Amino acid sequence: MLQDRMLHKNTIDDKTRGRLVKSLKEDIKKYSILTGSPFLSRDDFKDKIYLILSRKIQDMYPYQSFKVDDDLLNQGLAEIFGLGILEKYLQDEKVTDIFVQDKELIIIREGKKKYLGEVFKTIEDVYLIIDRVKKHTGKTIDQRVPFLNTELYEGSRCSIVIPPASDKVYISIRVFNCIDFDLEDLLDLKMFDEKQFVVLKKMVIEQKNILIAGAMGSGKTTLLNTLAKMIPPSEFISIIQDVPEIRLKEHPYVRQLSTRPKSREVDNEITYGRLLFETLRMKADRIILGEVRDSMGAYHMLQALNTGHMGSFGTIHADSALDALLRLETLAMEYKENIGNLVVKRMISRAIDTVIYLELEKDNNFNISYRRLREIVLVHDELDNKGDYRLEIL
């Protein structure tokens, strides 16, 4: 990393810092530096900005021995992308969630909530962040469409709600760095034991269709992303999700497909169904679906997993492995009211090989104490004589 070489001889005062950052912003605006180029990670942005600032110091202060330090680098990064104070917490590997409520800021660090008070001077500062998020994504949020679900430039998941749909401005960010683990890392964190570790690896190798269930924040996406990283790099993988949060950087044959709601008259809605149709034409070895949140998503998950794509994944909110199947069943029937309960059960039993249930434990202050794999349940292809699921608990 270029940042590792940032040893500074003379401290840069605040006034000089301000001039450098202002000049940096002007160059970026004038020449479309960075904003017109694709980057893969926050480190890519940092390295580019480091080089630009280093050249600026040489040009503007040729007789000074200033060096780019972390404070200047982070200030430049924050100003460019309009995320201000949020940048500090986006870069903290121990922070998993960031919440803005009008001018107030709350973070979750190491599983514990921390109220930081009113960190924004005015509500206009908060709307500046929203404007920068909009500019990066090209999406719309205003009084007519007061919702926005997207990703930030470095991959974190961001949800925004503004009045009149709410009493305040609410920004919720799920920090991306909290899901970039290997399976061994989760074993070290005691999410599961050695026996379960072996079972999980075996299921991926044997191309089992896996449904991961649990409460919000229980680690569903983290586990899915971790298991998917073990897919052989020679396979074609299609990922269908609402917000891009599943990333397989080491796999060369990954197609990232994202749904899009109809937010304006000129927009065309992009649904799970349409993306699945396109996926089937692309020839994928495995299909990974993001979280099932509604009846359409549930039905199309079953459609995807019943197309012969073994070794596929999906997640769903539920309180147990059995509840996950029942919820998937109910949602699918809501979407297709003309199909019977028995037909849906058969679709599910043939589509899903394994259900993994993750348990989330909180303390008296509602801080997360631990995330743990509680159940691994095998789902047999055929129903029993009463038309119920045949399940086997490992």
Give a structural overview.
With 394 residues, the chain is of the alpha/beta class. It contains 12 helices and 14 strands. Strands 9-8-10-11-7-12-13-14 form an 8-stranded mixed beta sheet, with helices on both faces.
Descriptors:
single chain, 394 residues, alpha/beta, Beta-Lactamase, six-stranded antiparallel β-sheet, 12 helices, 37% helix
CATH architecture label name of the largest domain: 3-Layer(aba) Sandwich
Look up the CATH topology of the largest domain: Rossmann fold
Strand order of the largest sheet: 9-8-10-11-7-12-13-14
Along the chain, the helix and strand elements come as HHHHEEEHEEEHHEHEEHEHEHHEEE
Helix share bin:
25-40%
Round the Cα radius of gyration to an integer and report it.
Answer: 23 Å
Q: How much beta, percentage-wise?
A: 15-25%
Distance between the termini: 44 Å
Task: Give the tally of structural domains.
Answer: 3
Spans of at least 5 consecutive residues with low confidence:
1-9, 35-40
Find the count of extended strands (DSSP E, 2+ residues).
14
Give a quick account of the main beta sheet: strands, pairing sense, barrel closure.
Answer: 8 strands, mixed
**Overall pLDDT score:** 83
> Any idea what the shape is?
elongated
CATH superfamily placement of the largest domain: P-loop containing nucleotide triphosphate hydrolases
Derived structural class: alpha/beta
